[in-house]
Amino acid sequence: MKKKKIFFVILLSFVLLNCFDEEYVPQLIVRGYFYPEQQITNIRLSESVDIGQKYDSLAVAISDAKIYITTKDNKFMLEESETRKGSYTSPIKPLPGETYNIEIFAKDFHATGQTLIPSQIQITKAPSDTISIEEPIPLEWSACDSCYGYMLTVICRDEIKIPIDSTFEEMRKENAEKDQIPFFIIKKEITSIEIPAFFFWYWGNQVIKIYAIDKSLWDYLRSYSDWASSKPNYHMKGALGVLAGISVDSVNVFLKKTR
Asked: Angle 241-247-253 (CA atoms, 0-180°, nearest 5)?
């Protein structure tokens, strides 16, 4: 399985809730994922900016933070990357089924969080190498006792993308520019699905990913997709963003053009 970093965009309209105050107060933003039995490679810290301020990813990244991870048996500290400001790593490999408590001291910020590491998910029945949206596209995976639920994504891997339906192409382009991808969250009791045709935006080469996710990511995704929600549901105390335990498996397929 090829591990790839994933990142879910934090909407600025929610981050900048205080943008009309007389004096804007920056907030700590945390994002990162703990994969079972893999080194912690990229926990990112930054601070929010006022809506009228130019965003500079390097300028808002936070250095010299103290990030402590505590389990029932151990406590260790993450180290800042020498090549990437605001990114923190550790050679420690989180164990599936264990709870990890996080405490962050950064500038004047103090934040805490917790995640339960899911076991490694595995695809047990994959679609054929070549698929059609006019036929069922089944996917099955192993049950994960230590996760809260599952998430499914489909991404076109072609450099030149041919849209299936031009009607929503502008919306797709806008989402792509924001690094947003379609996702579908699935209850823990379900371990198989027929992938909906609307999940495929383009013809050609696709990567289908199934994730086992913890409660913090589940609740965030639920609020993120709930248009009635006033703001995302962050489990971090003292910070915005998501710091979650996840595992992932994937399969590559080719979606043939049928119309």
From this structure: 110
Phi, psi (rounded to 5 degrees) for 44: -105, 135
CATH of 123-228+247-254, one of 1.10.10.10, 2.60.40.10, 1.10.10.60, 3.30.540.10: 2.60.40.10
Say if CB 150 and CB 183 are below 8 A apart. no
Residues 6+ apart with CB under 8 A from 256: 130, 131, 132, 203
Neighbouring residues of 160: CB distance < 8 A, sequence distance ≥ 6: none
Q: What does pTM read for this prediction? A: 0.83
DSSP state of 202: B
130-131 and 123-125: which strand pairing? unpaired
Which phi and psi angles does 40 have, rounded to 5°?
Answer: -75, 115
Place of tokens 């919306």: 171
**The pLDDT of residue 12 is above 50:** no
- Rg over CA atoms, the chain: 19
In whole angstroms, give the CA distance from residue 186 to residue 212: 10
- Where does CATH 2.60.40.10 sit in the chain? 123-228+247-254
Handedness of CA 160, 166, 170, 176 (dihedral sign): negative
Using the predicted structure, report yes or no on whether residue 18 has a pLDDT greater than 80: no
Spatial separation of the C-alpha atoms in residues 26 and 59, rounded to whole Å: 13
Return the H-helix or E-strand segment holding 218. Answer: helix 215-225
Q: How far apart are CA 175 and CA 166, in angstroms?
A: 15
